[in-house]
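Deliverable D2.4 — example input (structure tokens):
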């Protein structure tokens, strides 16, 4: 792993010694793949994974679907309406545990799902009709939409699918809940679109917002019990939409989506108008924890462009993805960074800093549907999307000067292909694969979802279709093995698959990489046991673990079977923690990165404490400042867990589920707004 190697000895001694390997990604290792077979249609909308590795799926279905991918049968038919939303739970091996369904009476009414810090399930979407029961158990919890329109729902369930509460929001026109998330305190941030005059207070009060055009964007906050806190709107007289929401480490809210015409992104008294270049432009907008406007940026051509997914890193920067047509300048500042899409469109993925300034942006040939992005435990970017054939039979998934062609043989009528790719945090190509061949996969407009758990596993979900468009069999093993799933009919079926992102050792054996601070100078040393075609090392430094800048380069030895020693002095380190990594470059241009080490300038002392391991849980208390992020390492410096989704017990204490960790000594780093606090924990099982 390359991320967050912040061991306690960094804090106590200002020196660390790790023995990492240089790593470059190869195709992820296949673990398992499953499919849910139905006779009409089933669509996967969102995926979540709990601390025990259980997998939760959320989506919509028509007709009868067998939700048990194993030999048993668990057929569910939507009643009393033709479309229901479902929540299904599977264990760490993909085995069926339970299924809950809700008759929302609205086609494709399920939109998004997240788990909160207590591992309760939150879902949102839209529904229609009277007395819709959101309790899938024996109880009754009915809601009714207004005047036959579609209204927004937010509902909460425990980890066993038991109903906790549901709220209904909206107007007499059509309103939709598109996405939601939960912060460490359990508060809920919801977003979507509305028309007319909509009331966003589900209680006895009212919090009306009036849409200006054919669909405005709402951003609303509720507490963990669904009580109203505030609601804001943005938009113009045309159409606006939101596709994804994220929180940064400071609690700021970031949105991406699309808008048409002139839209005001300031929900308060100010004016922050953006005007689309033609039809729909994509946007990136940021608000503080109270929903107050900070900034907004747009990217667009004279055609249709849309932002579909975003993730934030621990430095407060944003990775975004979307689709576009024509020529688009993705630099919202004074510079120009144009990407050009071929006929039929393409996609982009980019990195923007906390102020919305462009750091880099890349092109991908994914030309339809929604593009999803996430960050894995190796700090690489995982991107999932789809390609509509009918264009080139070979597409290049390397946005750089090299070529990484994927074959997408066409069929009639043109099929869609699921594409799953991996890139480093500067957008360099690592690996990509196509799932679908001559099978119909990932209908345009539906997102192939990609999710990572805190233990480095990757979960890939989407839809596959059967023999109406050719072969109904898809191989989900991106390696040399074969893991075929078959869709036996010509309707949409949900698939979900699990992978591990492994590391491929390059021909460099790194014995040690150390850092030490003396008199406000950071001294770095490393040594190799052997080298083969090693051209040089780039020394890179960052204030966080995800974005680095080059400091210097040192020539490699080339070829050696003996120990070679290297060193570098950073005479102008930043105050506090400095993160360093080595970028090793082969003579053929191949690159690889070392693990990240951290050197503190100056040393900071802190003394959090942890209780003994009990029932799979460790409680850390006595933190000097409120926690933002936590990481767990073993004695060899391997990262076993990292997350900003914290289970808070109080403002200065957290709870960790470590039931999956083997016995041993572990180093826990808790990041706060004032630095890092560290503790050594013996875990005896």
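Example output (designed residues):
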């Amino acid at each position: 792993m390359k991320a967050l190697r912040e061991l306690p000895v960094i804090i106590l001694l200002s020196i660390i010694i790790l023995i990492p390997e240089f790593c470059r990604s190869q195709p992820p290792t296949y673990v398992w793949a499953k499919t849910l077979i139905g006779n009409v249609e089933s669509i996967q909308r969102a995926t979540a994974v709990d601390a025990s590795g259980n997998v939760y799926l959320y989506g919509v279905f028509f007709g009868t679907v067998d939700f048990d991918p194993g030999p048993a049968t668990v057929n569910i038919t939507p009643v009393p309406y033709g479309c229901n939303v479902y929540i299904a739970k599977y264990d760490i091996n993909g085995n069926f545990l339970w299924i809950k369904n809700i008759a929302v009476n609205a086609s494709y009414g399920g939109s998004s799902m997240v788990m909160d810090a207590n591992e309760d399930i939150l879902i949102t979407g839209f529904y229609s009709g009277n007395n819709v029961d959101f309790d899938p158990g024996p109880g009754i919890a009915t809601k009714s939409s207004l005047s036959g329109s579609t209204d927004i729902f937010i509902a909460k369930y425990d980890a066993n699918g038991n109903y906790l509460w549901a709220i209904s929001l909206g107007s007499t026109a059509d309103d939709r809940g598109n996405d939601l998330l939960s912060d460490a305190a359990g508060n809920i941030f919801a977003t979507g679109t509305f028309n007319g005059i909509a009331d966003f207070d589900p209680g006895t009060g009212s919090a009306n917002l009036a849409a200006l055009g054919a669909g405005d964007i709402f951003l609303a906050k509720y507490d963990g019990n669904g009580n109203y806190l505030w609601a804001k709107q943005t938009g113009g007289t045309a159409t606006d939409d939101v596709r994804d929401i994220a929180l940064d480490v400071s609690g700021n809210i970031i949105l991406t989506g699309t808008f048409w015409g002139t839209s005001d992104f300031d929900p308060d008294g100010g004016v922050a108008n953006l005007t689309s270049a033609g039809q729909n432009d994509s946007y990136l907008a940021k608000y503080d924890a109270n929903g107050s406007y900070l900034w907004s940026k747009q990217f667009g051509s004279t055609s249709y462009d849309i932002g579909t997914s975003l993730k934030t890193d621990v430095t407060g920067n944003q990775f975004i993805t979307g689709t576009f047509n024509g020529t688009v300048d993705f630099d919202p500042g004074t510079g120009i960074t144009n990407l050009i899409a071929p006929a039929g469109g393409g996609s982009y993925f980019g990195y923007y800093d906390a102020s919305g300034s462009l750091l880099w942006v890349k092109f991908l040939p994914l030309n339809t549907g929604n593009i999803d992005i996430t960050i894995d435990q190796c700090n690489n970017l995982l991107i999932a999307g789809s390609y509509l054939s009918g264009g080139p039979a070979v597409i290049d998934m390397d946005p750089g000067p090299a070529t990484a062609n994927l074959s997408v043989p066409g069929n009639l009528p043109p099929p869609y292909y699921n594409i799953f790719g991996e890139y480093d945090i500067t957008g360099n190509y690592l690996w990509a694969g196509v799932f679908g061949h001559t099978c119909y996969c990932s209908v345009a407009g539906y997102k192939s979802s990609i999710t990572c758990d805190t233990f480095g596993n990757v979960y890939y979900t989407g839809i596959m279709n059967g023999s109406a468009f050719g072969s109904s069999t898809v191989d989900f093993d991106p390696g040399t093995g074969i893991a075929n799933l078959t869709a036996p009919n010509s309707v949409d079926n949900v698939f979900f698959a699990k992978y591990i992102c492994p590391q491929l050792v390059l021909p460099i054996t790194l014995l040690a990489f150390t850092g030490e601070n003396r008199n406000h100078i950071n001294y770095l040393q490393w040594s190799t046991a052997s080298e083969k075609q090693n051209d040089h090392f780039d020394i890179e430094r960052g204030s966080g673990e995800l974005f680095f800048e080059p400091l210097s380069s040192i020539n490699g030895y080339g070829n050696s079977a003996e120990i070679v020693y290297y060193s570098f002095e950073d005479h102008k380190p930043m105050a506090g923690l400095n993160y360093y990594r080595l970028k090793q470059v082969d003579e053929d241009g191949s690159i690889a990165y070392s693990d990240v080490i951290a050197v503190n300038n100056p040393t900071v002392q802190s003394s959090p404490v942890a209780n003994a391991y009990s029932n799979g849980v460790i409680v850390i208390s006595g933190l000097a400042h409120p926690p933002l992020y936590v990481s767990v390492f073993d004695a060899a410096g391997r990262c076993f867990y990292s997350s900003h989704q914290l289970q808070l017990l109080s403002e200065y204490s957290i709870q960790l589920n470590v039931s999956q960790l083997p016995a041993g000594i572990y180093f826990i780093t808790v990041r706060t707004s004032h630095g890092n606090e560290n503790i050594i924990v013996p875990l005896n099982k």
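The longest helix spans residues 8-13.
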